Amino acid sequence: MKDSCVIKSNKYGLSLMLNPDISFEQLVTDVCRKFLNAKEFFGKAELVVSMSGRELSFEEEEVIIQAIELNSDIKVKLIQDNSEITERTMLGKLEKFYFEKNNENAKIIFGDVNKSIHSDLSVLVLGNIMEGAEVNSKGNIIVYGKILGGAHAGASGNDTQFILCHALESDDISIGNHAEEVAIENSIFKRFKRAKADGIIIGVWDNGLVAEPLGNGLLQEIVSKQ
Q: Does CATH number 3.40.50.720 belong to domain 105-225?
């Protein structure tokens, strides 16, 4: 497939054929560009969207949907996955908070962060936080890559925020008033073993910073307090 994203219409809405050979960051950038250029053509509509050609995690699907909605007047109401249609409004509490809130109230950065960034909103980074750079957010920080620099969530002193990343390779981490070393081996949940595809969630638990694989339960506990 030469094009990064091929858009076709079907009886339910739109089908996106996604190139599996380019980086996810480049794919999202191209999706933004295509829907922005076709904004008048699609008009204001509520559609079902299906995606194929590339394996996507739930998180990656939602980032692509955000790219569509932020660059057009389209509202994605349903996601068609093979023969099944998933209603987005029926997502669980975790997914509803994690993505719908950030879709409305987040600063989205396409690509790597190479400087200091300050935001009153949650920050979604479609890349890495590079060494020497940092993100300071009063909300949550979600990084679809590595944290090599600084990540400071809940910058207004809010300990109920979280940091999510694919890989953590930095000690410059803080949430709210907590800036101590992140505890991995002393986690109160499952032992810290994760597959390559898993994300890492960092939050405040028992008055300290704790890191866990995304599926181990810490994020649900944090969300329940927000």
A: no
